[in-house]
Amino acid sequence: MLRRVRGYFAFREADDSHSAAREIETRGFTLLSNVFEPSEVEALAAEINQVFDDQSRANRAGSGRTPDDDECFRYAMLNHSALSQQATANPKILAAIEPLLGEDCHIIANTAWRNPPNDTSSHGGQAWHIDAGPHVPLPEGVTWPADIPHPVFAIGVHIYLKDCRLEDGPTGVLEGSQLSGKFPPPDESMNDDLAYNGKQVVPLLAHAGDVGLFVSDIWHRRMSTMEGDSGRFFLQVHYGRRDIAQRIQTTETTNHLSEQAIDRARTTREQTLIGLHKPFFYDG
To answer: Residue 71 and residue 111: Cα distance in Å, rounded?
Structure first.
């Protein structure tokens, strides 16, 4: 764990108030119960549903998703929903992430997910993936030292707006895989039984008002849906260290460049060099 000292990071000694942060640091995830009251969930869900009704899909992922898949997302929610912005600053969430990312961590992405029930396209779930990194890649045969806390650079947070049961295809995580220094094996990308270091997938089962948190480097996926799937509905927030760029808008929309600089960048590498990137994790 860490804290800011004169603008720099310093080691932070954990105490009893850091139990959620400690679980994220060691296991790679945690679940906070009853963070939001039923009335708060109802109001937030209504406001987000209104955004879905008022705005058309953004198609950020281009050809990577079908139109029906892309319809499940609304981006930059804190720009469109006051209650979404308020929810991202919930003290219980900040208490869990700030000891790992710093007191000046910020939101790098904020997307609402509304997966319809009985969606045949999601029956197989999502592929195993990590959201970024791995931030500390390790060669084969090398393991992270047990006596050195693994750094955390970004944390994904799901604010559940309805119950998420096993039938609904919850997010599944593989405990400890954030320490692997590797991404999930591509030939196992849809394997429901994938394990890491002898540990099986843990489904993040939640009630409306609960909050799930996981390290960006952890291996995770939407698990396969089952008969009785009622869909998923949650507000996703990604928090990152201060020195990780925000991804709330794509770089095509929001950048630090003049029109002349953009025009001068002709090749793909010249474009990425000045900060113009195609949407990837966090962007879409």
So the answer is: 12
- Residue 284 domain-assigned? yes
- CA dihedral sign, ordered 189, 123, 73, 235: negative
**Same domain (yes/no): 150, 282:** no
Size (the chain), residues: 284
Q: Is there a single domain that holds both residue 203 and residue 257? A: no
> What CATH number does the domain containing 175 carry?
2.60.120.620
Is residue 19 within 8 A of residue 1, CB to CB? The reply is no
Strand partners, 30: 213
Residue 12 lies in a domain: no
Which value, in Å, is the radius of gyration of the alpha carbons in the chain?
19
pLDDT in tens, 124-181: 678 999 998 899 999 999 999 999 999 999 999 999 999 999 999 999 999 999 999 9
Strands (E), 41-105: 73-74
Residues 108 and 167 in one domain: yes
